[in-house]
């Protein structure tokens, strides 16, 4: 079946512009995660959605970052007034949930964001 | 989540077994040991996980020490495609699984020589 998809695969923007990154999780997965990976760095958690619960935003680095998940499926990560330090690969993952669920997270290919 | 310690890098020859160690001396009784790997220019992918007993799947085997303070991911015959960064991650268990974000460390970069 289809895996997690992300778009665009690459995004180049100018400093100060806003960007939107999209994630389509695996159908039926109720949990969705955003991570980012800066050059040469490990993966950093950003935000986590679980069903209809309030998202866990504890990893967002600043108030310029926000994310939505509409209809329990597609998610959009928005970065306002981008800065050069926002340049990174943004990864989305999804997993199923419920009793007896699998905790395995399935990752998308990522969006490479470059802020000039 | 408790912390894990892995070597920064390891090398292997193609078609030979590889043993990737992970220390987790502060592991609690409900922590599951998960392994993910990240191939170059790709998102991470799940490899295997376990609680107490050794586990085998089509990708690898996981050997867990009796005291659970360390574990070893075993690739039985390394291929060039196995060159990746391997992450050992502890997750709190709940009904056999767990929710919440993964906490990635630096992982072990595995190089495979032909």
Give a description of the structure.
- The complex is a heterodimer of chains A (116) and B (114).
- In chain A, strands 2, 4, 5, 8, 9 and 10 form a six-stranded mixed sheet that branches. Chain A has a four-stranded antiparallel sheet with strand order 1-3-7-6, with no helix packed on it.
- Chain A contains no helices and ten strands.
- The model of chain A has no long low-confidence stretch (mean pLDDT 91).
- Chain A is mostly beta strands.
- The N and C termini of chain A lie far apart (37 Å).
- In chain A, β4 and β5 (43-50) form a beta hairpin.
- By secondary structure, chain B is mainly beta.
- Helix content of chain B is 0%, strand content 46%.
- Chain B contains no helices and nine strands.
- In chain B, strands 1-9-8-3-4 form a five-stranded mixed sheet, with no helix packed on it. Chain B has a four-stranded antiparallel sheet with strand order 2-7-6-5, with no helix packed on it.
- In chain B, a hairpin with a 6-residue loop joins β3 (31-38) and β4 (45-50).
Of all chain pairs, the largest interface belongs to: A-B, 28 and 24 residues
Oligomer: heterodimer
Q: Name the overall outline of chain B.
A: globular
Q: In terms of structural class, how would the helical and strand content of chain B be classed?
A: mainly beta
The major sheet of chain A is characterized as: 6 strands, mixed
Q: Estimate what percentage of residues of chain A fall within beta strands.
A: over 45%
- In helices, the fraction of residues of chain A equals under 10%
Low-pLDDT windows of residues of chain A: none
Query: How much of the polypeptide of chain B forms β-strand, as a percent range?
Result: over 45%
Taking Cα atoms only, what radius of gyration of chain A do you get, to the nearest Å?
A: 14 Å
Approximate shape of chain A: globular
Number of strands of chain A: 10
